[in-house]
Amino acid sequence: MNSIQTIELTHVAATGEAVGRDEDGRAVFVTDAIPGETVEVETVAEEKRRRRSILRKVVTTSPDRVEAPCPHFGPRNPVSSAEGQLLNPFWRRAGCAGCQWQHIDYERQLSLKREIVVNILIREGRPRKTRRESRQIVEKLVTDVIAIGAHAEDSTNDAPAVLDYGFRTRMQFELAHSHQLTLAGRDQKPMVVDACLLHHPQLAELFAGFRDEHGSDEQTEAGELPPRPDSVAVHRVTLAVGGTADSLSESAKGVLILHSEDDNPPNLELDLPVNVFFLHEADEPSLELLVGDWSYSLQVAGHQLTAYPPLSGGARDTHLLADEVLAAVSADLLELKTFEHVLDLWAGIGARAAVLSEQIATIVAVEEAELPAAALRANLEEFDNADVWHGKMLPTIRKLRRGQYQFDAALLAPPGGHIDPELFSLLTRMRIRRCALITDEPVQLARALAAVAEEGYQLTAVQPVDLQPHQPGVTIVARFDRK
């Protein structure tokens, strides 16, 4: 324990860490390093077959190593180069657990994400008995990761811009003590950040407004805070924006959700155009509107959509362009034709359906959750070729089947990445030939392949999309064809 050793890093783990092997053959996992580098590390946790280490020195530097723009990124210890240069001069302010890869060139991030997806499908999916045969199959299935492009004015012919910063429209914060927004640190302790470079301009404005009007100066140099007093009712805050403009306004309001197990909402003053909600997280959760309106606006591919306060969601619910890009990717992957009929399951507020409705004959959108379903009805009301259903997914699909609906393709976006084989059994009975599954959980996808195959569907293509820049996670659109 705490021994110093030099390691050559050869590949990336699913967790985003670079991995090498020590003299005993044990795997050594290193955060803040890059595969291909030789590094000097200090062991902090040791098991029979693996060690976890922190980076101390980069002996041989990868050409893909870049300077992280955020002062809160990286380890809370100095890291030097072979020449003795300090690679993280802001290490005293660092330690945020949000980003893991700001030190890696973005193009290399994309290749590492593909490598992670391929390795997961080989290890968990096991398409063939031997690893070599499995790799040959998976390498053909998984395409290059799609990077999201920035606005046209932010790009040039020489350097087309990607939206790797300024894309996030929603984030949740803990209140370590009275009205102080904090993020989780790498050491699991709450820490204060001055700003987050991932924030869309509207979200950055909302974050700064809350911080400046309700923040506290009581913090350490490293951004740590004392524990939150028991007298503070609100323990968590969700900030969200529509991303329809560069700043908040009465026509482009933000959303503030105050999470509490207390029944009494706190007194709050915020001089910003924002809808404020109080979420009671007791035995029977309930949402109460305190200030403003129940809905706010989103813009997706030219469509002005209505959204209600976000209560849950994954990576694809927090990226400015997620719905627009995923709809386009799904349409391409499914090879949709203008005369075809599509079933959209877990349709959310209808953003994907609104985009697809202009490309196909008809679309039926199904949503389980009450608030998104209400927005779904409002957003698809103007489309004559769109129909909306609300209810539990499997019973609703059975009703659709009894109603003699006929579909050429289905689009599935199950929450939490959960894949129910019975769902595919129902789609088989409905004679749906092509399905596109959207998930942020490649492990769950891989583990479900055998069960899905038993229900009659074979995985034929995997398209990763990067909705989580500077993190190892990736969103997948997977195509299944009926056998």
3D structure, described in words:
This protein has 9 helices and 22 strands. With 483 residues, it is α/β, with parallel strands linked by helices. It has helices at 106-125, 131-141, 201-214, 322-334, 351-356, 370-380, 393-402, 421-429, 442-454; strands spanning 4-12, 18-21, 27-30, 38-46, 50-60, 80-81, 170-175, 181-184, 190-191, 234-240, 254-260, 274-280, 286-291, 296-300, 303-307, 341-345, 362-367, 386-390, 409-412, 434-439, 457-465, 475-482. The longest helix is centred in the N-terminal third of the chain and has 20 residues, at 106-125. The model is unreliable at 217-232 (pLDDT under 50). Helix 1 (106-125) crosses helix 2 and helix 1 (106-125) packs parallel to helix 9. The radius of gyration is 24 Å and the shape is globular. The strands form 4 sheets. It has a 7-stranded mixed β-sheet, with helices on one face. The chain has a 7-stranded mixed β-sheet with strand order 18-17-16-19-20-22-21, with helices on both faces.
Structural class: alpha/beta
**Number of helices, where a helix is a run of at least 4 consecutive DSSP H or I residues:** 9
Kindly, what is the distance between the CA atoms of the first and last residues, rounded to a whole number of angstroms? 53 Å
For the sheet with most strands, the description reads: 7 strands, mixed
- The quaternary organization reads as single chain
**Which ranges are low-confidence, i.e. pLDDT below 50, for 5 or more consecutive residues?**
217-232
